[in-house]
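Tokens help. One example:
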Amino acid sequence: MSMFLTVLRRSTLARGVHIIDGGMGVLLPKLGMPKDPILWSARALVDKEYHPVVVEAHKAFIEAGATAIITNSYGVIPGYLRKAKLETQASKLCALAGQLAREAAGPEKGEVLVLGSLPPLLESYRADLLMVDKEAVDWYSMMARSMAPFVDMFVCETMSCPAEAATALQGLREGCPDGKAWVCFTVDSEGKCRDGTPFNEAVRHLSTATNISGIGVNCCMPEAVELAIATLDTDSEASAFASSLERVVYANAYPKEHSEGVEYDTENFDDEAVREDLTAERYAQSAAQWASRSSLPFTAIGGCCGILPEHIQRVAASLK
């Protein structure tokens, strides 16, 4: 894992932007995994017959141009596994997620990076639903330790607030002391973290962490990305910290009602109800703008929920 920066530099496109994959949660059902309102994407890990589907999904993004893929461990959380009485299988499922991603990506130190997902543990977007610190740290530690043999680095993704991110980073330190992570906050339509913290303040809050290699936003409306990153332009401390890291973005394709969390209910939500106006071409145009910012341009760009291989293919083409 210490070779990460060298590997990452080899995996860049000519423009110097790393291409991340898209959303597994929407793609997996399209490839044959039954929808599961309890386990969500983790269903493909629990049922052995769908393990090849996970590899197929990863490979679809790689073939579209992704040079970094994220493990399918987003659903391996107590908020989901406890409902299915599968909590004791968590470590095994995390390791499997790492193994399947590595199978799709090929050998370590190759052209495609594998990032281990460290997600919210109870529910996405909910800064009011954080686990008790020690319990959360222990779970993140378990996830990191289980995936470490298969991944190049980690991503603390869809973090709703600085406290959630700090807990994930602490768990990473305990479970994989040499591990590095990108930290990506989910922001609302105003570009603020889900607890109302401005993005620049969230970045500043993590500036003393030693295991961060990237900072950014994910699982938000594309229109909110610029609102978030622009807050760094007037904050010299946060800007200086961000300038020393990868700047990461992978937005989603959900309408505002979902992205704001107003109607968010995992067990009843149709995760294929994405925006019709967010075509692959339009998303690629946003990606090109993110990579071309005059200050602090994004250096790693991909997609989250609802962003499919066709979107990533257009993104990769637009950034060559």
Observations:
- The first strand starts at residue 18 and ends at 19.
